[in-house]
Specification:
Layout: H1 2-24, H2 42-55, E1 60-66, H3 67-70, H4 78-89, E2 92-98, E3 105-112, H5 119-135, E4 139-143, H6 150-157, E5 180-184, E6 194-198, E7 207-209
Parallel strand pairs: 3-4
Antiparallel strand pairs: 1-2, 2-3, 5-6, 6-7
Helix pairs in contact: 2-6
The protein binds zinc ion.
C-alpha cells in the first residue's frame, strides 16, 4: 500500500515538473510553422472561378471565411455566449458572396465534395443549417462538378445579389401596366437592395424583386444543384 502511495506521489511530482517545463518553453521562438500549400484544392478553385464569373462586378467572392467573422452569438449570459461561440469558432463558410461596396455578406455557399455522408459531414450540415437559419444568412448548397454553367449559378444567386444592370431592363407594373422604377430599400431585411416599384406610387403600391427575370432558357431539371436545406 505504501509503495503505491509513493509511486503516485512520484508520478504527480513528475507530471508537475513536465507541465511546468512545457509552459516555461512556450514562447514564439520555439513554435515553428510551415505553409500548408494552396488554400483551396483544384475542385474548389474551379468552383471559385465559376462563382467569380457568375457574380462579376456585382459581388465579392470570398473563400473559407471563418464563421465567427460573419456571425456572432446572441446570448443572455457569458456561459451561453461561450458555448455558442465555441460551436462556430473553428468552422468556416466554404464561400461567401458579399456586397461589392459594403462587403456585407449576402449569401453563403456550401460546396458538397461528393463524398459519403459520414458523421463529420452530417454535423457540419446541421451546424450550417442552424447558424444560417438563426442568423438569417441565406445558404445555397452546390455540388462539385467537372464544369459549371454560369447561367445556372446566376439563377441560384439571383435572389441574393443584384445581377442585372438597371438600364438593361424595363419592367411594367403587373397591376396597372405603368412603367416601374428602381428604388433602393432603406430599411428592413433587404436594406440596401434594389427593387422595382410602380411609378404611379402611391396610387399603385405594386413592387417586385429586382432579380426575377432571366433570358437564359430554363434547364430541363431546374436547379439540380440546389440542396433543399429546409
Ligand atoms: Zn402599378
Amino acid at each position: 500500500m505504501e509503495n503505491i502511495f509513493i509511486i503516485v506521489v512520484l508520478l504527480v511530482v513528475f507530471f508537475f515538473f513536465v507541465q511546468k517545463r512545457l509552459i516555461k518553453t512556450e514562447t514564439y521562438k520555439d513554435c515553428k510553422y510551415k505553409r500548408k500549400g494552396a488554400l483551396l484544392n483544384s475542385q474548389e478553385t474551379a468552383f471559385l472561378n465559376a462563382l467569380k464569373t457568375a457574380v462579376g462586378e456585382h459581388g465579392v467572392v470570398l473563400a473559407k471565411v471563418n464563421m465567427a467573422n460573419v456571425i456572432a452569438p446572441v446570448a443572455t449570459n457569458k456561459k451561453q455566449w461561450f458555448v455558442a461561440n465555441s460551436k462556430i469558432a473553428k468552422s468556416y463558410f466554404d464561400f461567401l458572396i458579399c456586397d461589392p461596396r459594403s462587403l456585407e455578406p449576402r449569401v453563403a455557399i456550401e460546396l458538397d465534395n461528393g463524398k459519403e455522408l459520414d458523421k463529420g459531414k452530417m454535423e457540419r450540415q446541421k451546424l450550417l443549417m442552424h447558424v444560417c437559419k438563426s442568423s438569417n444568412v441565406p445558404l445555397i448548397g452546390a455540388s462539385i462538378k467537372h464544369s459549371y454553367q454560369v447561367g445556372r449559378l446566376r439563377r441560384l444567386l439571383a435572389a441574393h445579389i443584384d445581377l442585372i444592370e438597371p438600364d438593361k431592363e424595363v419592367r411594367f407594373c403587373k397591376k396597372c401596366g405603368s412603367p416601374m422604377v428602381i428604388k433602393i430599400a432603406s430599411q428592413g431585411e433587404f436594406k440596401g437592395r434594389r427593387f422595382f416599384t410602380c411609378s404611379r406610387q402611391p396610387q399603385c403600391t405594386y413592387t417586385e424583386n429586382y432579380n426575377v427575370v432571366f433570358d437564359e432558357p430554363e434547364p430541363e431539371n431546374p436547379n439540380p444543384n440546389q440542396i433543399d436545406w429546409s
